[in-house]
């Protein structure tokens, strides 16, 4: 009896410890980014850091540290990815959960989830040898290493998150809603658009936000396929360099303790805050949904 | 010593080599040949760029750092403060090859024109006698020794911000093949395929010192060995202190007849007798 009590306590404590550990790690990462990132502003004025000045810390003459163009690159590729991933992902989720026969559903859903298992370096490689030349031919561009290429690849990578969460949200809609709608004489399409969609609206928004969080943080794919030019992009057909790519390229060779080193932490901090905001929004939307469901 | 007394086996000596992407394939070949002849030695070779290798040597994370550029005085000073004495050894030489897409339609450039193209001052191929069309620049990232060497030697100022910074030499080649206005720079070893043929869809540009001098191709071995081709650079391997033990054996193997044969077969140039093992006492002994 005493022994059972001991194990009971032991597991209770060790589980709460693991929960605390996750919070500690998150706090530790944030603290480290904050500590090192803010030190960048000792030598770089914040207004200059967020300006459109060129990002060129390893410059031939005077180094310059402006993340405006990179921030634009990250926003362009991420929003571009959402333009593709949201309609396709939500359409797919509705097809899988409402329209597809059970056998098709049993194949489609795992297939989409498998997409998440494709390594990002493989997606990036396809961006160079397949999507790039295709875009160049389609739009008569000299090359296809641009924001549009990155957006298409990120859309593919964000798709599993969007489809899975949206599918769950659609499934959470009580059957009685649909039955009531059919009883009133509405057809399948009307029920889908006027009843099911409005009732899982916030779940779908959460799916979009989660997909977006995935797209903002993706590194290898954009590093390979978007050209990484530091010039300010004038649209989707220009090469872009994202914040993730910059940190990945430069972190390996920067001497510790230099303004360049701290500025990379500041970049990482900006990225962390961006994904944090998106994820917190997604979390709040889903928890609202759960409350309403009860 | 402990391992030798406890286990009745020859301990495996592990040597790590890290750095230049230009050198990584070549050093891998050399290491394989070396390991075939020396059992009990295990060399692991990694790329990442010259800057990454130098940083690893300073942090004690690698035994040998491959570098396709000279170590800067600032780096030597910085390393010395960490207790690391960088000693460079030249083991081979490499020609930088300028390649374009064949659709650009020209086959030679002066060094000054090349600099103006990569700095962004020349933006249309018509300005240097090519088919009119936008110039599309490809290069490596700032952690690459080739990036810094090319900037120092050819551009002499910052690269144009429109330079597309690719993640590796193979990616530069793939991209230029697909870009009708594409130009880029790569190591000689990457231009030829293993069977000796050139990559289809690439044109190697002949370089000349100025408008009146003759142009030379990097594929012309004579132009390389007598120094006529303007973009020839030594390849370094850096160690902490004068190399000794297995590291020394490996460096000696690279300079042996067999080592130099492997170097030439891989499309690099053998370092001549006067070229080998210059350890720059003036810089390291300060």
Give short descriptive properties of this protein:
heterodimer, A: 294 residues, mainly alpha, two-stranded antiparallel sheet, 2 strands, globular, B: 286 residues, alpha/beta, D-Maltodextrin-Binding Protein, domain 2, 2 domains, ten-stranded mixed sheet, two-stranded parallel ribbon, disordered N terminus
Strand sequence of the main sheet of chain A, in spatial order?
A: 1-2
Give the termini distance of chain B in whole angstroms: 36 Å
Strand content of chain B: 15-25%
Supply the number of helical segments of chain A.
Answer: 12
**CATH level 1 class label of chain A:** Mainly Alpha
Distance between the termini of chain A: 39 Å
Strand content of chain A: under 5%
Strand count of chain A: 2
Chain pair forming the biggest interface:
A-B, 29 and 34 residues
The CATH topology label of the largest domain in chain B is D-Maltodextrin-Binding Protein, domain 2
Q: Which structural class is indicated by helix and strand composition of chain B?
A: alpha/beta
CATH topology type of chain A: MetI-like fold
């Amino acid at each position: 009896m005493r022994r059972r009590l001991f194990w009971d306590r032991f597991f209770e404590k060790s589980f709460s410890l693991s929960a605390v550990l996750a919070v500690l790690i998150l706090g530790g990462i944030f603290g480290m980014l904050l500590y090192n990132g803010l030190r960048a502003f000792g030598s770089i004025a914040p207004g200059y850091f967020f300006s459109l000045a060129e990002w060129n810390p390893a410059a031939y003459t005077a180094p310059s540290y402006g993340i405006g163009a990179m921030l634009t690159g990250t926003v362009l590729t991420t929003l571009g990815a959402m333009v593709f991933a949201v309609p396709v992902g939500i359409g797919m989720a509705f097809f899988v959960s409402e329209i597809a026969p059970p056998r098709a559903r049993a194949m489609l859903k795992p297939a989409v989830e498998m997409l998440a298992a494709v390594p990002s370096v493989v997606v990036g490689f396809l961006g160079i040898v397949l999507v790039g030349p295709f875009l160049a031919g389609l739009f008569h561009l000299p090359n296809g290493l641009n924001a549009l290429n990155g957006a298409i690849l990120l859309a593919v990578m964000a798709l599993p998150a969007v489809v899975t969460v949206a599918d769950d949200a659609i499934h959470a809609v009580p059957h009685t809603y649909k039955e009531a709608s059919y009883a009133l004489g509405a057809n399948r399409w009307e029920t889908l658009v006027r009843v099911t969609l409005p009732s899982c609206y916030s779940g779908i928004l959460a799916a979009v936000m989660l997909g977006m969080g995935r797209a903002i943080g993706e590194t290898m794919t954009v590093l390979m396929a978007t050209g990484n030019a530091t010039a300010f992009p004038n649209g989707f057909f220009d090469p872009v360099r994202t914040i993730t790519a910059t940190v990945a390229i430069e972190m390996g060779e920067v001497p510790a303790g230099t303004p360049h080193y701290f500025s990379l932490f500041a970049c990482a901090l900006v990225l962390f805050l961006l994904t944090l905001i998106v994820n917190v929004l997604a979390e709040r939307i889903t928890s609202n949904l759960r409350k309403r469901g009860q | 010593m402990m391992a030798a007394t406890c286990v009745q086996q020859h301990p495996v000596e592990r040597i790590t080599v890290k750095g230049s992407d230009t050198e990584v394939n070549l050093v891998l070949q050399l290491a394989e040949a070396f390991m075939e002849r020396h059992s009990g030695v295990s060399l692991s070779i990694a790329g990442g760029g010259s800057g990454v290798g130098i940083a690893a040597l300073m942090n004690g994370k690698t035994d040998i750092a491959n570098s396709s550029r000279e170590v800067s005085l600032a780096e030597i000073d910085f390393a010395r403060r960490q207790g690391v004495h960088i000693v460079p050894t030249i083991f081979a030489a490499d020609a930088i090859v300028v390649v374009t897409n064949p659709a650009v339609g020209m086959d030679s450039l002066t060094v000054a024109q090349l600099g103006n193209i990569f700095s962004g001052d020349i933006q249309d191929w018509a300005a240097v006698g090519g088919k009119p069309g936008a110039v599309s620049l490809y290069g490596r990232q700032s952690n690459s020794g080739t990036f810094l060497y090319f900037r120092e030697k050819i551009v002499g100022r910052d690269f144009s911000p429109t330079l597309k910074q690719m993640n590796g030499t193979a990616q530069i080649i793939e991209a230029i093949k697909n870009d009708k206005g594409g130009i880029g720079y790569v190591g000689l070893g990457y231009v030829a395929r293993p069977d000796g043929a050139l990559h289809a869809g690439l044109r190697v540009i002949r370089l000349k010192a100025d408008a009146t001098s003759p142009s030379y191709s990097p594929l012309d071995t004579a132009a390389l060995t007598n120094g006529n081709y303007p973009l020839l650079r030594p390849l370094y391997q850096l160690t902490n202190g004068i190399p000794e033990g297995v590291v020394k054996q490996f460096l000696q193997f690279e300079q042996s007849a067999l080592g130099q044969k492997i170097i030439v077969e891989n499309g690099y140039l053998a370092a001549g007798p006067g070229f080998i093992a210059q350890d720059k006492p003036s810089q390291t002994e300060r």
